[in-house]
Design brief:
The protein has 278 residues and is α/β, with parallel strands linked by helices. The chain contains nine helices and ten strands.
């Protein structure tokens, strides 16, 4: 809800070519505690005034020379987003009331003024207007927050992707059926996909069985080392880490992980161990 001070501090523009009407409305508003009041007797001034100040409420007389109230409303429509006109029209012609509402005015008061009615309608219109603005501001802030969080997530994902590229030979993701859905690096080469390493790929059957069992049980694994024998007799060592992925409903959607070829490291290990013993 709004505080009373928010309504009393709202910006109001009085537009009437009759000085007596302007003075009466202004005095009534000030007696009611309103503090931010602007007046004009020149209807052509309304457009630049409203464009510069975006008044919370415009009290607009309909019957004015040079430019009547209907023309004023039509002129200021392009200022307001969504065509919302914060206009309360003032008219002595009963037939103008419906026409004014169709033109975009939000309410009306009749001449001669009933001061209690005018005060009530002004208060109600300002309350709706300020709540409308508060909602619009909240939506803009929400959109900005979503945009900022989205940018942060993209930046974080980019950093993670770069980190995995630097710390591993490949990154992969697979769906719940085991199909590769996303990867970077020489995954096919590392896993022997499409290679001529033989029907079984030269893999160590026991090690691959343990790895497959981990994946089948949807368990995470860290630095799992498995080997295969290449057609040239060389043993290739691969190290892989992975974790299962789940959606917001806790439904298993696949695996993701990183891997690297550690053959050179494993081949040098005995020599390094001997060197340390010497």
């Amino acid at each position: 809800m709004l505080e009373a001070s928010e309504i009393l501090n709202a910006s109001i523009l009085i537009v009437d070519d009759q000085e007596a009407n302007v003075m009466l409305l202004e005095q009534m508003l000030r007696n009611g505690g309103y503090t931010n009041i602007t007046t004009t007797q020149t209807p052509t001034d309304v457009y630049p005034l409203h464009k510069g100040h975006r008044y919370d409420l415009i009290l607009l007389d309909l019957q004015m020379p040079v430019m009547d109230g209907f023309e004023v409303m039509e002129a200021i429509k392009d200022i307001e987003p969504g065509g919302y006109l914060p206009v309360l029209v003032i008219t002595a012609q009963p037939g103008h009331k419906l026409q004014a509402l169709k033109a975009g005015a939000k309410d009306f008061v009749s001449k001669p003024f009933d001061l209690v009615e005018v005060q009530t309608r002004i208060h109600n219109m300002l309350e709706v207007r300020l709540l409308y603005r508060r909602l619009a501001n909240y939506n803009r802030q929400l959109e900005q927050t979503v945009a900022e969080r989205t940018a942060e997530l993209k930046e974080s994902e980019a950093r993670f992707q770069r980190f995995t590229e630097l710390s591993s030979d490949w990154y992969w993701e697979q769906d719940a059926e085991g199909n590769m859905t996303r990867f970077s690096g020489p995954v096919a080469e590392m896993l022997g996909i499409g290679s001529s390493e033989g029907a079984d790929g030269g893999w160590n059957a026991d090690e691959r069985a343990r790895l497959d069992a981990n994946i089948a049980s949807r368990a995470p694994f860290l630095d799992f080392v498995y080997t295969r024998t290449r057609t040239n007799g060389q043993i290739q060592y691969l190290q892989v880490s992975g974790e299962p992925m789940f959606d917001s409903s806790s439904r298993f959607t696949g695996y993701r992980g990183v891997g690297m070829d550690i053959t050179e490291r494993m081949q040098w290990r005995p020599r390094e161990a001997v060197r340390r013993d010497e």
